[in-house]
Amino acid sequence: MPVAGVYDIENNRVAEIELSEAVFGAPVNEDVIYEVVRMQMASRRSGTASTKGRSDVSGSNKKPWRQKGTGRARVGNSRSPIWRGGGIIFGPTPHGYAFRVPKKVRRLALISALSMKFKEERMTILRDFPMEEIKTKRFQEVIDRFGFKKTLFVIDQKRPVLEKSSRNIRDVKMVRSEGVNVYDLLKYDHVVLLEPSVHKIEGALIA
Hints:
Blueprint (H helix, E strand, L loop, with lengths): L2 E5 L5 E6 L2 H4 L5 H15 L58 H17 L3 E4 L9 H11 L4 E5 L4 H6 L6 E5 L5 H6 L2 E5 H12 L1
Parallel strand pairs: 1-3, 3-6, 4-5, 4-6
Antiparallel strand pairs: 1-2
């Protein structure tokens, strides 16, 4: 069973915690990670690209000249796609790109991402992060003390003071345990979990 140190905000090791082998010590499956990240990226695409076909552009429906006898190519109307100002042939139209992968695959990908962070020693567990008032400067001091750069914070519940204190710090994102996802785990170099959030994540993934 994996064991990790638990730290306070002064960067002192105050305890140890046993982590679930099934969540933080599982084999890393890169294939399912790729599929889930692709799903998340596709879901974020707006799909609003649009062009006008020949029936959408303005212009006369009248035939410019008779079909035969002029020596020129036949043409139906001025909205023809081969004419300047005509419609677009097979242009993009608004549609959704989102797709879903099975729940078991999403769960396995999240476990793989958490296990990868733990094995690469890019995961830190904090006993707590007490803040009585919104202070970005104080939050930044803790970040600097640990040497965190691009960091994802995972908290166990709604913490308005802590969340607002981190809001204006670049390359720092704070999510609650129920919102942790594969894309964010891969995007950020380091993951910081509050100790209660570890139990919540394990409970959700093992159940």
